[in-house]
Amino acid sequence: QVQLVESGGGLVQAGGSLRLSCAASGRTSSMYAMGWFRQAPGKAREFVAAAAWSGSSTFYGDSVKGRFTISKDNAKKTVYLQMNSLKPEDTAVYYCNADGPSGMRDWGQGTQVTVSS
To answer: Which of 27, 74, 80, 104 is least surrounded, with the fewest CB atoms within 10 Å of its CB?
Structure first.
């Protein structure tokens, strides 16, 4: 199992920026990807971004392409989400995830991001 701890959420005005961090510990040797999902009140959890743990492949949800950037530091076992040009509809709890073999997925506890108009 991989333990994940997110940080960096908060309140920001529309058009502003935030940077989320997610630090992994535990059985990190089995990870092949890390990423972010988000969930707004009353809505389903939505894919935001993912990064392959080996190599440089990244993936983004359509709603954040061109505004959000995922990056990682393998030595620190940390993934980041730089969020620019934030909109009120980006308001959600953001969850970090780590993917391993056989469909295993571990989740962080979530961090709240609130964008005011």
So the answer is: 74
